[in-house]
Amino acid sequence: MRVNHCGEICAQALYQGQSLTSRDPAIKEALRGAADEETEHLAWTEQRISELGGHKSLLNPLLYAGSLSLGLLAGVLGEKWNLGFLAETERQVEAHLDSHLLSLPVEDVRSLAIVDQMRLDEIKHAEMAVHYGAAELPLLVKTAMKLAANVMTRTTYLL
Ligand SMILES: [Fe+2]
Ligand SMILES: [Fe+2]
Questions:
Q1: 103: domain CATH number?
Q2: Burial letters 18-31, b for 16+ CB under 10 A, else e
Q3: What is the per-residue pLDDT for 157?
Q4: Strands annotated E in the chain
């Protein structure tokens, strides 16, 4: 849940960065709507961590700053790459949540419900990005994103 919470911190930063640089009013509005759901995800995961007696990742400020820079950069590259980056991020998050659903104990009903709802919302966010014209990212970029996400997942699991 600490990893998921950290992911939601990064989602905040990404959406903030992207809506700052996006120029299209309809896209800005859609980004804001998705960002609102990410704020809910952040609250759910934070609450679940405290219910479980865990702690939030020490790396959060660092990863927030990194994600904000990425969001701004993606925004500068133009709308279709901005949305393409968003769609790919959400798809990778979906895959992570899929595997998390499989590894959670069946009796942890609350965590399962949270992860499942987030998964549904992230799928919707990716579809929203595609709807507004997301470009398909080059394979190399997707692979680099997966590697980076893997490092982030492993480190926030520990720290
Ligand atoms: Fe989320
Ligand atoms: Fe999302």
A1: 1.20.1260.10
A2: bbebbeeeebeebb
A3: 85
A4: none
Give the chain's domain count. 1
Beta carbons of 138 and 54 less than 8 angstroms apart = no
Residue 88 is part of which domain span? 2-158
Distance of CA 85 from the midpoint of ligand 2 (Å): 12
Q: What is the pTM of this model?
A: 0.87
126 CA distance to ligand 1 centroid (A)? 11
| Whether the predicted pLDDT of 130 surpasses 90 | yes
Ligand 2 centroid – CA 2 distance (Å): 17
What would the pLDDT profile of 96-123 be if each residue is shown by its tens digit?
999 999 999 999 999 999 999 999 999 9
Q: For residue 90, which ligand has an atom nearest its CA? A: 2
Rounded distance, CA 40 to CA 8, Å?
9
User: How far apart are the C-alpha atoms of 154 and 110, rounded to whole Å?
Assistant: 23
Q: At what angle do helices 139-158 and 2-21 cross, to 10 degrees?
A: 140
Residue 136 pLDDT > 90? yes
